[in-house]
User: Which sequence fits this backbone?
């Protein structure tokens, strides 16, 4: 595993960490034990955090930036598994596995800052407290439900509906009719995350533009008709 530098944790506050489901159910002494293992890790744009098969000793929370989790096919093509945003964690599930090796690779998209936590102390805390385990299990079950909903959207809707749903999810509030979206992620990465080809992604944006639903300016997309997008999502062509 490659780090740029290991630093004492000074940026994130306990309140910031406590908002995450992994830490919300910990007692103050338990949280102090975990926080003592935290390291703030600045990662440069394009730098690998870890590669598939590396020994898994830490899980991570994204403090700033964006992390791409991906796998390589037999042909060497990258498949984006997930885009991890600020406030989200990744690799935490490996704490519960006997063979702790990262199953995917992780790379920074843009300069990013992570907080790395040692898995062993967290695992020890859970072994010592069944009540804490149950609280964490409930929180992780809710997250699993959200991920299953996302899988349903990806598998049951066609490519156009996936792109439309991406635009709708970026709305500042439910039912917003006009708003702007600016991609913080390269289009090819977004396309891979949505399981569509980059050229298909671009074609769908053009199709929505011709329909008068959006206007595209480079990385910025102006949604002109949120209600119209809702209708596309509900009944894609």
Assistant:
């Amino acid at each position: 595993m490659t780090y740029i530098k290991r630093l004492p944790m000074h940026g994130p506050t306990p309140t910031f960490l406590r908002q995450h489901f992994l830490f919300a159910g910990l007692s103050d002494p338990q949280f102090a034990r975990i926080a003592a293992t935290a390291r703030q890790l600045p990662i440069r744009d394009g730098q690998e955090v870890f590669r598939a098969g590396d020994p898994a000793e830490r899980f991570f929370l994204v403090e700033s930036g964006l992390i791409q989790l991906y796998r390589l096919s037999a042909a060497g093509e990258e498949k984006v598994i997930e885009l991890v945003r600020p406030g989200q964690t990744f690799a935490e599930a490996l704490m519960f596995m006997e063979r702790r090796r990262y199953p995917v690779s992780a790379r920074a998209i843009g300069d990013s800052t992570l907080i790395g936590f040692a898995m062993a102390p967290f695992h020890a805390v859970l072994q010592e407290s069944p009540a804490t385990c149950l609280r964490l299990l409930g929180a992780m079950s809710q997250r699993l439900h959200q991920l299953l909903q996302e899988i349903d959207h990806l598998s049951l809707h066609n490519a156009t509906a996936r792109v439309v749903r991406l635009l709708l999810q970026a709305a500042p509030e439910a039912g917003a009719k006009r708003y702007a979206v600016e991609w913080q992620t390269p289009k090819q990465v977004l396309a891979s995350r949505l399981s569509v080809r980059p050229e298909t992604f671009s074609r769908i944006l053009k199709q929505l533009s011709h329909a008068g639903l959006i206007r595209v300016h480079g990385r910025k997309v102006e949604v002109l008709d949120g209600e119209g997008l809702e209708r596309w999502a509900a009944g894609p062509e």
The radius of gyration is 20 Å. Residues 7-147 form a domain with the Jelly Rolls fold (CATH 2.60.120.10).
